[in-house]
Amino acid sequence: MNLSLFSFGAASPSKNHARPDRGQGAEADPYEIRAVRRWLYRVACATPPAVRETLAEAFLRRPEAPGPAAEHAFQAALGARLAGGAGSGKAATVAKAADNFYAHQYRQALNPQMGAFAATATQAVLGAGRLPRGALWRRRRQVEMALTETVADAPPILVLDHESVAIPLYLPVAVNLTEWRPMARWLEGGGAPPPASVRRLMLGDRMRCAEAGASARRRPAAGALLAVADAALHSRKLAILALHPFDPDAMGLHVTLFGVEAVTPQTLIRDHGLEGDALTPWLCAAGRLGEKLLFLVGGVEEAFTQCSQNLFVKRPAEAASRRAAQRLAWAPCDPLDTLVGGQFEIFQATVSASGLPGVSPRNGEIGRAGFVARRGRRSFVLIPYFTGNGVHGHAAKLWSNPWSSLIIRDDHTTGSVVTLSGPTRIAPHSWIVAHFPAAAASVARRRRRNGAPADDPEYWFAQRVVDISLQDEAAPLTRLDPARGSCTLHAAGPAHHGKKPTYFAADSLAAYDMRWQHRREAHGRPRDPSGRARRDWLNEAEPALHARLSHLARSAVADVQ
User: Which are the contacts of 361, defined by CB distance < 8 A and separation ≥ 6?
Assistant: First the structure.
């Protein structure tokens, strides 16, 4: 098998135009895998990764299909591989599943259900790509990642209207007069570096590391958030995964922002015509923390359901468990196996060569969400990927930018919050069997509910760990609700709880329009000083927000009982 064909990436929607696919000419069937297209895949795979998404946009886009063009390339290549070659009707299975997702779940604005979910989320996982470094095959965008939560009753996400979302950013630094000018230049996003006080928070302090070939550091949670902000200000893109870990019905909402800027509360009020008390929760939180409040704000480029979050439910842990976690806290001087081997949830962030980021949960049975393996002096985290919605967005991004970050928020055992980063590839299951048989054997032991063996992974994410970042603050400890413990999707084993593709009623919104998105990005993030968009949003979203809050209140009462 040509492994390069199994490592695809994504093109930025800002450069996509829905137009006839020059690689297909006047084909009647957009899903047919012809020899010329297979040859084009091989040509693209032989080029440097950063060039591939440009070639995919030029030659491999399915006519009139939204989404990054290189996702289409990976979908077609995977379909052809599963079908055993070109010309088979089975080759279209993956691409048709992806087009069904694009048609019914992939949107570029928020409806009331999405907005109410995001506005009441208690956690948000953020991801953004840094400016590229290197040339040709060594060109990479490193990925910054952070997990932010409700702070002093102020949620981690502020929904402004159908098209605009903001993330609060608390600056825990006393900016003196000598640093104010570099701080202002940094916040303008023109490429200026952050001031020294911010850089110190972002970089943290070096630590001893047990993993050969990797370096370790520790930094506060604010340092990780500032690193994401720094990357987003350069790339103008930010991925947000909104989560409700205590809600048994929650899925997870992915929102990608374009035209990201850092603004003061006063600027946000002016740009969106906000009412006087709209920012009170965040201003009060910043006052209690003694920190300066800013917002990362941008326009909605992507909004879609992110599966798997409803496969388990967390509850606050008892005091005895919290004390035990303090004794078990993990540190980089401990083997990585002891941390990864106890997880059922890992968050992953990737970014395409053009800067489009994405964040997803990687879930499974306890101890099978990911595996640590070693070859020589290199340590790897291996994550199996099973049948999903057919889009394969992260695999696509890794094709053009083979780098990823992982967040492990071990809020059930050690209380440690750890970010792992490094070069990442897509590996076929057969390659894992040959090179890391122990991980493959553990996955092979899974069973369906009827006792039959579960399917093999479609492929694996193989990350070489080169950077380990430990958060200073411990995560509040939780426990799994025994009525909804960790489980897996249908392809990964027991299918106790499935996906809910209509969870956010995305069909209430118009289908994705690539041409409109191109025009939006040309004008920058949406602004409406008149406040009309904000007022329309509040009126339309009020019933959904009321229903969402009532549902969360009922869930909290049920938990107490």
Answer: 241, 252, 306, 308, 309, 345, 346, 347, 348
